[in-house]
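Consider this today:
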Amino acid sequence: MVCASEGAARAQEEDPSARLARLEALVAEQSRRLSEQEAMLARQAELLEAQSRRIDERWRVDNRYSEVASVPPGATLLGPAGLEAWRAGQDTTGQNPDGRSPIQPPPPPSLNERRLQLAAVPEEVAVLSPKGRLTFDVSAEYTRSSANRLVFRGVEIVPGLQIGVIEASEADRDTFGATIAGRYGITDRIEVDARIPYLKRNDTITTVQQRDEAVTRTIDLKGDGIGDVEAGIRYQINGGEKGRPVFVAGLRVKSDTGEGPFDIPRDEFGVASRLATGSGFWGIEPSLSMLFPSDPAVIFANISYFAHLPRDIDKREGDILIGRVDPGDSIGLGIGFAFALNQRFSYSLGYKHNYIRPTSTELNNITEKSDDLQIGALTFGMSYRITDRFSLNGNFEFGVTEDAPDMRFVLRVPVVF
């Protein structure tokens, strides 16, 4: 009995230490599990942050693509294939497949992505066609020009009392035209184009001479046919990086395929039997244009010099022998801006001015020069994109100088292939 009591007492003395050991082991196990959970939470937080960055970047790319996807094909920096390729190069953590390089934000919009804004600008400063892109352009135009002139030959005794001859003339000129043109991008920076115009002209000139009685004479002239065929090439000098303006150099050659003023028959008084459809001279025109993106608009400007090539006419009209004729060269300037209201509609406003130098004509071995001309016009253009291939463009010109036509309207339908 004594030995059994001693064993029970000894067992009771060992119970607290064993219990403490078990508690310490349990605390250690809980600490280990807590450390593992903290490590897992830290890893999950990293994955969530990477996923959030990936969602933000993808949303920006998708939103940017949706904004520019409606412009003509070839105008966006990332087309559908390029966007899918960009997506395929990313894994689910928002990193590149090598796991080292994080996502880079998409580059800023390029100049081609502004094609919608530039669709309404004049043809001479339009953005170049992308490589391999063919654009077929059909246009129709109408030009209206009128002039009134009052000439008095005589003596004015007192204000309102005149002795002599009064001549008054009124000229109304209407020109209808249709043009077939094509543009092709050889590279992303070189474009070639050609134009074949057809003209239909109608001039009505009324002259009133006041002598003993009023004598009225009306001349009605018409003319139609192929105009002067043109061809040109344009080269984009720079890429417009870092917000700099883009400069495009051009060279255009005009032929003499149209019927010139010296090719049509005239009567014994030197009056033409019909109107000319061409200038009758070859010409060459170098030019330089500028496109400067300035959100939310695009500023454009251009300068050109059109040089006619003189030629010997060697033709007799009545008693007058027409020798060498040198049509006056012209200097052209233009400036304006284009603005896109939405993904389909844009407009432009501008001003253009041409200074035409005097024409030298040799008549009976005597050289005579005409007056120089100042032709200025306000320009207004509109463009509406119907589909990815078809657009409808309208351009207006309103003359602001005496020598300029009153109004010119051009309706163009570009078709992209």
